[in-house]
Specification:
single chain, alpha/beta, 8-stranded mixed beta sheet, 5-stranded antiparallel beta sheet, 13 strands, about 25% strand
């Protein structure tokens, strides 16, 4: 029976610093896994447009993006959760009233809100986006405004009680730490997307492997028996079946080797 491997991006396939380094051993491991007959999938919180070219070039059979809101297999879109523009505008209004700082993520790009509070974290993100060539001009006031998911930063005067109360009905809030929250439509996650793919392709859960490095990977890691934490990601160690070495110490290669998904070259 065919095996399938789900990879997070940031901190797993690429370093989380400004280098966005993909170790040569990671490139080798992905190639060897595919040559051995494994299916390989990206499983990321990033929306589709923001899957870096150097990641795509590694060669994957499919993409799970936006925490399960978008699924692509061999170039065909199998699932895409489309929110209504009316809903998105209502959420944007609520976030302004709650005085949080948002970034709205769509499969085709980001949207920003000049009417919402700005803070140093957003400014840092904007600088990095510009350096990466990402368009930061699109605003909530644009006629085409719509999103698939969104993130927010808390501010000293944010009404987080109201935010949690009103967002919680429709969104799963993922605590990324330091007042940074990822918000995904309820019913969608990295795990629901994996279930969808396994069912679609007829692959047993015992043949599925997941590799991640942070708490937002938890649904993905808990969805399979063969769960792998990157070395250094101590927060998720209690939830996985195997801990590999850090990303720049051949972490991906060593993990796939451990499970017999690749052979030593």
């Amino acid at each position: 029976m065919q095996n399938i491997i789900f990879f997070d991006i940031d901190g797993t396939l690429i370093t989380e610093d400004a280098r966005h380094l993909i170790p040569d051993s990671t490139r080798k491991a992905v190639t060897l896994a595919r040559e051995s007959g494994c299916l390989t999938f990206i499983n990321t919180g990033r929306t589709a447009f923001n899957v870096l070219p150097q990641v795509r070039e590694l060669g994957f059979d499919g993409l799970i993006c936006g925490c399960g809101t978008y699924i692509e297999y061999r170039g065909e879109v199998l699932l895409y959760n489309r929110l209504t523009q009316e809903h998105c505008r209502r959420i944007a209004k609520l976030l302004r009233e709650c005085r949080v700082t948002p970034v709205y993520e769509h499969k085709d790009g980001y949207f920003f809100d000049r009417l919402a509070p700005r803070n140093a974290d957003l400014e840092d993100f904007l600088v990095s986006f510009v350096e990466e060539g990402i368009d930061v001009s699109r605003q909530v006031t644009s006629p085409e405004f719509i999103f698939d998911k969104f993130v927010i930063w808390e501010n000293p005067d944010s009404d987080m009680e109201r935010f949690r109360r009103e967002i919680g009905c429709d969104y799963e809030m993922i605590d990324r730490g330091h007042g940074f929250w990822e918000n995904v439509p309820r019913g969608f996650s990295k795990a629901t997307a994996m279930d969808f793919i396994l069912d679609k392709l007829g692959i047993p859960r015992d043949n599925a492997y997941a590799i991640g490095d942070s708490m937002n990977d938890l649904p993905m890691l808990q969805a399979v028996e063969h769960s792998i934490a990157m070395g250094g990601a101590e927060a998720i160690y209690p939830y996985v079946s195997y801990i590999t070495s850090p990303i720049e110490e051949d972490g991906i290669y060593n993990a796939l080797l451990h499970f017999g998904l690749i052979r030593p070259d």
